[in-house]
Amino acid sequence: MLIPTLPQAQALLTEAGALNPGPWTAHSEHVAEGARLIASRLSGVDPEAAYILGLLHDIGRRAGVTGMRHVLDGYRFLDELGFADAGRISMTHSFPNRDVREIFGEWDCDAAELAFITDYLSAAAYDDYDRLIQLCDSLAMASGFCLMEKRMLDVAFRYGINVYSIPKWKTKFGIKADFERRMGCSVYALLPGVVENTFGLQIADCGLQK
After folding, report:
1. Is residue 207 situated within a structural domain?
2. Dist CA 91 CA 95 (whole Å)
3. CB 3.0 to 4.6 Å from 26: which of 121, 129, 141, 142, for a disulfide?
4. Is residue 205 part of a domain?
5. What's the CA gap between 115 and 111, in Å, rounded?
């Protein structure tokens, strides 16, 4: 698999965070940790590779404050470094149905760039790593892990939705169900802090801790 080593990936994220500071780096770290935890329960999926891919899925944001073009910026950056598989994940993580119309917000690419993304997604061979990062992107906010519904609404409140949003969400829930079937447990059983980050409550506040 053409991906950086873990120290290289961590250095790339640190550099990117200095170039464009923001909550996206904390989100990326949580996506990485969620991917590692889920991968550890899946046959044929390497937890460290999953972690690295999670760290770098939004690396295109190093280029500055952009919209959906961050998927292209990330792909180009990683591909030029020789990390083609990490670049693929940067491109595919927002498109579980390979449809560029699934975006939140607007495309900030020119027509040629959008055509390239469309063709790339049509030809891309998705595997468990693509689907895992697509899932974990919907399980992690900058503050930590949460129910998928909260993360989806968080994005929708900021960018709006369109007629392709519901099919996109349904596909992500299907990915979640498939991984849970293969693991034999809920993804939420593996992710720390889901209750607190979803509901904004400390368990102790409810008298549930003993």
Report:
1. no
2. 8
3. 142
4. no
5. 6
